[in-house]
Amino acid sequence: MIIVTGASGQLGRMTVEKLLERMPAEQIGVSVRNPQKVLELQGKGVRVRQGDFNDSDSLAYAFEGATQVLIISADGFGEAIVQSHRTAIEAAKKAGANRIVYTSHMGSSPSSLFAPMKDHAATEDALQASGVPFVALRNGFYMASALMFLGDAISTGVLAAPEDGPVSWTTHTDLAEAAAIALSEQRFEGLTPGLTGTEAIDLTGVAAIASELSGRPIQRVFVSDDQYRDTLVSHGVPEAQANMLLGIFRASREGEFAHIDPTLTNLLHRSPLSVHDILKASIAAKM
């Protein structure tokens, strides 16, 4: 049985739906903190059990009978997140899983300027130390972040953010399909190449495409790192969270997310959704 954690979240839920296209529902189980959020999966025949990364006993129950476990990386950053991943890895091992798949990141590195990338690197180390065959899917950066930074720029005409660098943006949809393929066909071993889009675009490029699609001029305005952080904090964002978000810009300026690799394209047998595709759909939904 393939167990998918975090199935109430966007990536986890999409991955389960993609798996259901490839195998019988009785071969799929999910581990979620709140089973009430995924009752529709239970209605499709998927095994639903309560499991919490911070409760090893609950994971023992949720992972029972697992041959593979997909560990969707937890939200947040810092040592507590890494420890929760270690707990999940150990639970998968104790459950007898012969393969652990983890949603890592293309920028995974202990020296990254973006804090979550250090957590991914630490989790990859834990996977290697577990002794269980594993796959770390080094996913590209979610385009959802670019949409967040774009915000209401179409209506205001201004996209204000710190200096950034090119990013090979990807979508939850494409990465969920990649995860389903990796699980159902047992693709990859160890650390994968970056599962990226086919182009790397900075926010100036994002603004230009959005302007073209909307027919409204958007000016890319650069603000200082300090100004950006202070603005976030003034709007109620905790300082640690603000510094973490600022790290995206610092890391992208150093090219941490600019690499382009054909692995995702080859795996899907098609081109991943482009920035143009995603912006077109997003803008159409708002206009």
TrEMBL record:
InterPro entries: NAD(P)-bd_dom, NAD(P)-bd_dom_sf, NmrA-type_oxidoreductase
Coiled coil regions, renumbered to chain: none
Domain of life the protein comes from: Bacteria
NAD(P)-binding domain segment(s): 6-142
One Pfam family it belongs to: NAD_binding_10
Protein name, as recorded: SDR family oxidoreductase
UniProt source species: Paenibacillus xylanilyticus
